[in-house]
Amino acid sequence: MTGVVWAVVAGVGFGVFQAFNRRAGRSIDSYLSTFLLLLVSAILLAIVSLLTEDLGLLREAPLMAYVHFGLAGFVHFFLGWTFLTLSQQRVGAARTGALIGTTPLFAFAVGLLFFGEVLSLPVVVGVLLVMAGVYLVSRGGPKAQAPSGSRDAETLDVTWRNSLFGLGTAICFALSAIFIRHGLEGLPSPLLGVTSGMIITTAAYGVLLVLRRKRVRQGPISRDAWLFQVAAGAFVGLATWVRWIALDMAPVAVVLALGRTNVPVVIFLAPLLVGRQAERVTGRVWLGAGLIVAGAVVLNLYA
Questions:
Q1: CA 158, CA 185: separation in Å to the nearest integer?
Q2: 116 Rama sector, left if φ>0, alpha if ψ -120 to 50, beta otherwise
Q3: CB 3.0-4.6 Å disulfide test: which of 14, 65, 181, 268 passes with 186?
């Protein structure tokens, strides 16, 4: 498959992950949730690597490849996933998905400044359609509000300050592409690269969790929350691997723009998983999602 197709697959996978993570996040502390995502993803990718990859590439790779993968993991997973989980618990999954949709704006700068990527007019139009859709989604309908007395009623607070977590996620996702590209030059295996970065980041996050264990506010975790958290970790691990494949085959801005196909997936799944009062979806939101899909189709045809 082409890099564009891989990017679309990754976007859908990230959409499912965000909806599942939103459901699990109603019962699990943000930092613990992020660590569990990393742990499940690292284990899954390590198993797939052992079964499918030539591990001799790990011995041949230069030290700087691991440095770049470690930096990519720190920016994308350590910071990006933490911001994402915090954003979901503060403004909801649908709005978080929309805020992350600003990633292509930062990707333009990354692709131009670091990789000299110049996009054609149809591709620019596609990205603009995606961004128009993101605008409608982020402005669509009333603020999310959970039933009185629920956990979400205490955590959902749609303010510009809380929206900064989603924007921070977008910046991290765009910047991580710099280190991914450089790392793949020394270790030309997206699967081994993302697995290396994931394992390094999981170990670092585990240390952080131990140091701040007294500040983690965590009650009993239900079986339902565990299942959704593990499923979210599996989906995001596979989607991240697919995204790295796409970054090895297509321009950064195109891959990150197509990744925004996660928005309609989140909009559809989140209300089903956490309730329509917590994740309100209006016709304007769906119109925005339609523009995002239209932009993805344009990019698929002309990239």
A1: 41
A2: left
A3: 65
User: How far, in Å, CA of 3 to CA of 23, rounded?
Assistant: 31
Distance CA 81, CA 75 (A): 9
Phi, psi of 282 (to 5 degrees): -105, 175
Count Cβ neighbours within 10 Å for each residue of 67-100 and write b for 16 or more, e otherwise: ebbbbbbbbbbbbbbbbbbbbbbbbbbbbbbbbb
pLDDT digits (tens, 9 = 90+) for 230-287: 999 999 888 988 887 887 788 777 787 777 788 788 888 888 888 877 777 778 778 8
Amino acid identity of residue 124, one-letter, is V
**Start-to-end CA span in the chain (Å):** 14
Helices 190-211 and 30-52, packing angle to 10 deg: 150
The Cα 96–Cα 51 span in angstroms is 35
> Cβ–Cβ contacts within 10 Å for residue 298, how many?
20
For residue 123, which of 279, 256, 222 has the smallest C-alpha distance? 256
Q: What distance in Å separates the CA atoms of residue 32 and residue 82, rounded to the nearest whole number?
A: 10
**What angle in degrees, to the nearest 10, is found between the helix axes of 160-186 and 190-211?**
130
Q: Cα separation of 262 and 233, whole Å?
A: 16
Q: Which of 21, 279, 270 is nearest to 145 (CA)?
A: 279
> pTM of this prediction?
0.75
Query: Could you tell me which of 1, 22, 2 has the C-alpha nearest to residue 270?
Result: 22
